[in-house]
Write a structure and sequence with these properties.
Helix content: 25-40%
Distance between the termini: 14 Å
Strand order of the largest sheet: 2-3-4-1-5-6-7
Structural class: alpha/beta
CATH class: Alpha Beta
Order of helices and strands: EHHEEEHEHEHHHHEH
Number of helices: 9
CATH architecture: 3-Layer(aba) Sandwich
Shape: globular
Number of strands: 7
């Protein structure tokens, strides 16, 4: 029997409002195109496709290569957890499974998420509440579906004066690893492995690319893509009865 072909890796980003989800896509877009591009939520230089997920606008962001009209073989989807008007965990569960339309029971293999990435701020401690409860239920569902998970800590320069002085210091900053508590907090609350939690600084007001910022963004992206690829391989083995 002929197996469905996976055309691209699907990366599903979620997290509280203002955590830097769209900014991360913008940063990846900028690094991949070797220039500062417009933010993903403003005028993405890549391509966006909007479909309806139950009652939501579901945007898919493709990252364009330096050669116009050519795209990288991975896409991003973003779903926010704003305290008011944000999506509920059921919507994200549907998105993880690739149910892009209400009543769509047999989604294409390309619609399913290959990795779930939680995006939170390094400078804001998440106390127990509605948002964290949603995130707990979402991560539990991802484990049930067999979808791997990662986390990205943004605004690391705001969380640590040493990192604000130089992004290079992220690799030796105890403040990022310990004093912010976010890594341990995400690990304990959501069950995300510490090795799969990456601190980054998104491009925001910069006019030019910065090699140190590029490095932390690419480090996180590389791990996201590798884990997603491994997930696709596992799914293909299961599909072939391996």
């Amino acid at each position: 029997m002929k197996q469905d072909t996976k055309k691209h890796l699907r990366i599903l980003l979620y997290g509280p409002g203002g955590s830097g989800k769209s900014s991360f896509i913008h940063s990846v877009d900028s690094v991949c195109q070797n220039r500062i591009t417009c933010p993903a939520d403003a005028c993405s230089s890549g391509h966006t496709v909007t479909v309806t997920v139950l009652f939501l606008a579901y945007k898919t962001y493709q990252i364009e290569k330096e050669v116009e009209g050519q795209y990288y073989p991975f896409v991003f989807n973003v779903m926010g957890l704003e305290s008011k008007g944000g999506v509920c965990e059921e919507d994200i569960k549907h998105a993880m499974q690739g149910h892009l339309k209400e009543g769509y029971k047999t989604p294409d293999i390309n619609d399913k998420a290959d990795i779930l990435v939680c995006v939170v701020r390094a400078d804001t401690f998440m106390s127990r509440g509605d948002t964290l409860a949603k995130m707990n239920r979402i991560t539990a569902a991802a484990r049930d579906y067999g979808i791997p998970q990662m986390a990205i800590l943004t605004h690391i320069d705001e969380a640590c004066p040493l990192v604000k002085e130089s992004i290079k210091n992220v690799y030796k900053s105890n403040h990022i690893k310990m004093k912010s508590f976010q890594m341990e907090h995400l690990h304990n609350e959501l069950g995300i492995r510490l090795t799969n939690i990456f601190p980054v600084k998104n491009y925001h007001e910069e006019m030019d690319l910065n090699g140190d910022i590029d490095m932390v963004i690419l480090r996180a992206l590389r791990q996201i893509i590798q884990i997603a690829k491994d997930q696709v391989k596992r799914a293909q083995k299961v599909g072939m009865g391996g």
